[in-house]
């Protein structure tokens, strides 16, 4: 393996495959290296794939890609111990072409997506770990792999090796991420017949639902649970920041068990058979935690660059867009025969101008704020459930009196100023 390529991409997740696909399609000689047995073998995702960014890569991909169900409904749950306050949106326009989002199983989807990069000319090598970048004269000139004679050279290396990128770290692009900058998520895929899923979630065949769950799903820690419907299975998972887990002494497996056995959740998954179990980190630090993403002969894309919008659970789409923008810059760099950090910086600038940079900036203080003020998840969600229970109980109390009682109960033992401050703080980080 001592051939020289135009570009080497490390990692065949959505970021790496998007980069490899874009460059190979433009005629570059691209090597895509994946450590898993096949792309997707090691990849974990709750499962919502965003159509828009995927169609920027392959128009009408859904006609051939292994997608599960088009998502027609997004529900949000504020979970109490034996209650739930719900909101959401169901739109049947999302059940028709061109659809909105889809649930996917990454083991199938990533494999298909990487095969499209191969179709346009990328060379994919699986079961190969990149152990380090080869650096000469302050420039990345290739990578070392765990294969015998495993050094490979290229004009540019794209690091798409996912959260906690050891390769970017070894280049000095970032330090070890702190426990508050990453979440640990655990999930299960639970098999259920399609008809059961459709009955329980009020769906027609070929329609899907997503449920994001706040509050009791994480026992009040900053984080979320989720339930997504596939064709004949349900993905259920929960994630919290590592710092939250340490502080509250939570164990991820216990948390998932707790969610699965929650009286509101249990009927949705009851009788199903767990088929897969996975745990994975999610970069949650946002804009403030973004590492350096451009150097001489090297760029960083996707989770490796902390590009996840945890408020909207968007990650795969940011990964795809960053991979594409990096690749488009490399195509220009090839034309100019200039692979300096200066030239490749066009990628960073375009990324910051795109929805990726703008959304990461918009929510730049959200994780830190919600982590520092645990009352949002710990106190307000149970309060909202209590208030709803009182409000919807018909007990002969006139409505005005009831409202007053609810308000009094909600504010009992709380400073009104403190509550106003909490509302203002939340508005400020989310606006
Ligand atoms: P990854 O998908 O992690 O891909 C990295 C690839 O690099 C892997 O294939 C890995 O095997 C390979 N690799 C790593 N190191 C090496 C090496 N040294 N040599 C060779 N190969 C290597 N996002 C959404 O959009 N929607 C969701 O619903 C959603 N839910 C999520 C739920 C969970 C539980 C988790 C953990 C994440 C979720 N995300 C979601 C986030 C999303 O999964 C990521 O943002 C996305 O996968 C990032 O893509 P990536 O290509 O950057 O990294």
TrEMBL record:
InterPro entries: FAD/NAD-bd_sf, FixC-like, FixC-like_C. Its cofactor is FAD. It comes from the Bacteria. Residues 367-431 form the FixC-like C-terminal domain. Keywords: FAD, Flavoprotein, Oxidoreductase. One of its GO terms (molecular function) is oxidoreductase activity. This is Geranylgeranyl reductase family protein. It comes from Aneurinibacillus aneurinilyticus ATCC 12856.
